């Protein structure tokens, strides 16, 4: 196969591993910076150009689109889809997962467990918003945040309303969530490929930290997940329409609750913790499922 990896940086661990795994399986693979692609959108004749050349003949494309370039990155991916290139994840699924409110609305509609969550634009009744999620302590999250930045634990009603007021003053978008204290500063990341959990790890925040992000000094270890966790993770991936993703789950007293679904999950932590060749499994999945023109963008869904 001829594969494209859409990634801004060929030196990133995940990009390197995907290239390595594809090469090992004797595929041709090229890393393409989506921000350097330019496109023509002529009737029935879409083109993608890159560094002065027309890109064509790719069998599949692996999007590794960072959160900060979602808008342009998904447009480039859509253009590949219009050319009939098989995408590992569809542009539509990536856009859905990047919009926290949209993805939470979809997941709750389909009955996937999640922490009680409220969101508001400029609430004039902060107390009622807090009551919606069961009152303090609550977790307040900036919608634009990643890697745990902009996630605040407000332990009292007073603290919660002053954080909310501050965010309102900044005109920031945020959501307010029930604090799942019993998770003990840990979460479970399930890596899904083709509707199956292929690896899982438990991430534990460092002492005194409720956020488990590895970027915030958390540590990761292999974990056995329960059937309920497996079912929750696979359902979340299915609802968002993602072949490959990382589903982050908190272990709450009422069962597994989904916090986030990541459509470009990092491979380093999960490969190290599980000892599995996740990149290889991704390439195998493409080998089995790729078909020219097999994309929603080309078909009726648009
Ligand atoms: P980001 O997308 O910035 O990583 P998350 O929503 O994943 O933000 O939150 C970061 C971390 O904070 C999570 O990995 C988890 O450990 C902790 N956390 C987030 N929401 C809750 C919650 N409702 N209850 C308990 N812990 C939470």
What this model shows, in words?
- With 302 residues, the protein is of the alpha+beta class.
- It contains nine helices and 16 strands.
- A five-stranded antiparallel beta sheet has the order 14-13-12-15-16, sandwiched between helices.
- Strand 12 and strand 13 (196-204) form a beta hairpin.
- Helix 1 (13-24) crosses helix 9 and helix 2 runs antiparallel to helix 3 (91-98).
- The chain starts with a strand and ends in a 13-residue tail after the last helix.
- Adenosine-5'-diphosphate binds at residues 115, 139, 141, 145-148, 151, 177-180, 183, 187, 205, 210-213, 248, 250, 259-260.
Structure in a nutshell:
The protein has about 300 residues and is an alpha+beta fold.
Task: State the major sheet.
Answer: 5 strands, antiparallel
Q: Using only CA atoms, what is the Rg?
A: 20 Å
> Which stretches are low in confidence, meaning pLDDT under 50 for 5 or more residues running?
none
Strand order in space, largest sheet? 14-13-12-15-16
**Envelope shape:** globular
Tally of DSSP helical segments: 9
Beta-strand level of the residues, as a percent range? Answer: 25-35%
* Total E-strand runs: 16
Each distinct ligand = adenosine-5'-diphosphate
Structural class: alpha+beta
Distance between the termini: 26 Å
